[in-house]
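Protocol step 4 of 5: obtain the predicted structure for the target chain.
Materials: sequence only (see below). No template structures provided, no constraints applied. The aim of this step is simply to have a reference model before the mutagenesis design in step 5. Sequence pasted as it appears in the construct record:
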Amino acid sequence: MVIFIKTTELFETAIGVTLCSGTTLAAIVRSEVEKPSFTLGEETMSNRVLIAYATKTGSTAEIATRIGEIIAEKGFSVDVKPAKEVIDISPYSTVLVGSGIRVGQMMGEAMKFITKNQAALKEKHFSVFFGCMILKDHTPEKIEEVSAYLQPVRDLVQPEYEGMFAGVIDPAKMTLVERMMMKVMKVPQGDFRNWTAIESWAREVEVV
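Step 4 output (structure tokens):
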């Protein structure tokens, strides 16, 4: 069973695309980003898992959805929600937090969620995942580099599992100015997410 609620956030900002390395492409951008909230599997009082995510252009929401589908296949009820919409985590024994990376950091919504629920998360099975364009080249050096982005999370709550995946740069979701700047700066474009790796990680994560 899938209970689906779609929310859409309209944002306007002077920061267009901020690469996870810290490089910023400045431009006025105005676009709609879907931030879905839904339940996968049978909605029960027990065996409930929460996946709270923060996303800028929607790619992390898609990763969260696929992870939720894999976990639901194990027989769990999985709530996938934008982090800022989660009010109470007490019904969940397992919590996963996903985020895009901006300027070498987890997005503010994700960090606020972890900070707010720090004490409770220490009593639960807690894992974290993110998407970052630096991992387009999935080398040990790149993994070590982006792993440092999770240190602020570890300082608050030590995750049991950490998922680090490549991200997406979609010119269709950018303004003409942004696309021109990306071309000049030779920023890689495309969807570099490795769904096999994402699915394998989701199957590995321990949920209760």
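Step 4 remarks: The CA atoms of residues 68 and 78 lie 6 Å apart. Residues 59-72 form the longest helix (14 residues).
Proceed to step 5.
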